[in-house]
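Re-run requested by the PI after the first attempt was lost when the workstation crashed. Everything re-entered from the original request form. Ligand of interest: pyridoxal-5'-phosphate.
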Amino acid sequence: MPRPLSATIHTAALANNLAIARKYAPKSKIWAVVKANAYGHGLARAFPGLRATDGFGLLDLEEAAKLRELGWAGPILLLEGFFRPTDIDVIDRYSLTTAVHCDEQLRMLEMARLSKPINIQLKMNSGMNRLGYTPEKFRAAWERARAVQGVGQITLMTHFSDADGPRGIAHQLEAFERGAEGIAGARSLANSAAVLWHPDAHVDWVRPGIMLYGASPSGVTADIAGTGLKPAMTFQSELIAVQTVDAGSSIGYGSTYTANAPMRVGVVACGYADGYPRVAPEGTPVIVDGVRTKLVGRVSMDMLTVDLTPCPSAGIGSRVELWGANLPIDDVASAAGTVGYELMCAIAQRVPVRAE
Ligand SMILES: *Cc1c(COP(=O)(O)O)cnc(C)c1O
């Protein structure tokens, strides 16, 4: 028997969340973003829940090939483009759409021998300052791309840095419109935060990721209350031991937590080698036997410890939810100083995952 730790992927929640993305951006086509092995959910496991999308966005050529093997014949977008001339052969073979963000990529396309034209998304750097051409250089890049024999349709793309925060997207929209003015072609701008909170950015294609997995782009659970988004992953385990400690006893490595009264402590089969964040401090929420309680003491490699005071009947074998259907991943992430994105992507290889 494996340890009682596992993750469950909720296919119906993925389908529900995709439908919600459509409800928010009813006039746009959707690139369902499944990079990083579908944000840790597993590409093959996420695919059935997301197959009503218009296209899939990802980074890795192997993941693109895997989607084709799963039977996906529709568009697949390489969000970072390609890195070597040989990548273009794979793009050609699997009929992928690719981002193009720099002259080096254009040069590789100019040199490539293709069996048919490939569609590209020409990326503008409208203020994120990571990938893309500045608004000033965009038209020249577009003209160069248009002149490449092997390039088919050109979509204009940019990415927002602050769609989930107070700065917003107005400055980037303005830069994008300035750089793209008078250039024909579909537009693709919005990540999840812009799908939810900036309808003016929806345009032709949207690119939701995190919302499909039922977490908040801002990392704050309350920000997606009322959207109808549902957690697509539940990370669960069981108590494998219970300790009753006296006042003054400490728990775990470094004795970081000391009981100030007699208490029962549950030991959960889950640690940082499973993808639970080691930095999660005392107080991080955990659900035991359906009751919300908290982490006490340091997270170790294979175990973590929880306060059983609010759940006196819990014992060995009691069900523990680390995050998921009843405990928003963003609540755990924010306690640990991070976002749901990082936690879901970090589920370790040794954790058995199944879809339901
Ligand atoms: C990851 C990514 C997205 C999705 O972002 P979310 O915040 O998860 O919705 C969209 N576009 C690009 C270019 C990305 O890299």
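Saved to the shared folder this time. The chain has a mean pLDDT of 97.
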